[in-house]
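Sequence design from tokenized structure. All designs in this work follow the same two-part layout: the structure record, then the generated sequence. An example of the structure record is given first.
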């Protein structure tokens, strides 16, 4: 029987019953190798299994409090974490030192927890780490078809509100847009009623605030079907 009730790493995030553990592939090699082998069952393109030392693994779990009977049988010197059972939800890995500044190498959400926003949570957490490190990041390329759709949706959900909030701060947006409009329609209609000569923002400002790589910010803006002219200085 496995003696561990939680991943062999540091718990760096906890909200209600959700926890995130940072596991070093160098110090917990066997555990990380088993994570990669588990991911291979669900990811056809997964190729890395054993070379885990250069990676950090961020493992998401949900935990349940032990029952009263179990707590009664626990020894008095056991801490609270040993009285909990942490269930694996998914994980993502990232290189410790990535030349391309990738903030995510592989991502997996186990089938019982899919379509419950855990995938988006993992993506958002990877960009949170990028913002903390002060280095905008991007997922490792090329992306799978599903991964590309997920990231395009995430980038739009971050870039578009930033643009609209910046416009409001400049008092350029005077009317409330209908709720039924899509992201592209929303920004396109805003552009039609706003003089961009009075509104200046750089891609690097968006990147530093959201943690998204400047190239991904630029491609997202283009896909939003907006008319924004970029000058040589990135504005």
């Amino acid at each position: 029987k496995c003696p561990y009730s939680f991943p062999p790493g540091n718990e760096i995030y906890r909200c209600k019953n959700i926890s995130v553990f940072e596991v070093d592939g160098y110090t917990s090699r066997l555990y990380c190798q088993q994570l990669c082998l588990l991911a291979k069952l669900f990811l056809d393109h997964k190729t890395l299994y054993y070379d885990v030392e250069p990676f950090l693994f961020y493992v998401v779990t949900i935990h349940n409090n032990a029952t009263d009977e179990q707590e009664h049988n626990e020894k008095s010197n056991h801490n609270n974490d040993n009285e909990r059972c942490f269930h694996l939800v998914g994980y993502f890995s990232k290189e410790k030192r990535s030349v391309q500044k990738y903030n995510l190498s592989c991502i997996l959400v186990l089938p019982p927890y899919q379509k419950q926003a855990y995938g988006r949570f993992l993506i958002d957490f990877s960009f949170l780490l990028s913002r903390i490190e002060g280095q905008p990041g991007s997922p490792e390329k090329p992306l799978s078809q599903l991964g590309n759709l997920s990231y395009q949706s995430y980038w739009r959900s971050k870039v578009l509100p930033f643009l609209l909030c910046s416009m409001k701060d400049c008092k350029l947006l005077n009317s409330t847009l209908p709720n039924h409009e899509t992201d592209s329609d929303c920004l396109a209609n805003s552009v039609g009623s706003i003089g961009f000569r009075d509104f200046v923002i750089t891609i690097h400002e968006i990147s530093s605030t959201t943690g998204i790589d400047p190239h991904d910010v630029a491609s997202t803006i283009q896909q939003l079907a907006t008319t924004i002219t970029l000058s040589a200085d990135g504005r």
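The chain has two domains: 10-66+83-142, 144-173+199-228. We note this feature because it recurs in several other targets discussed in the main text.
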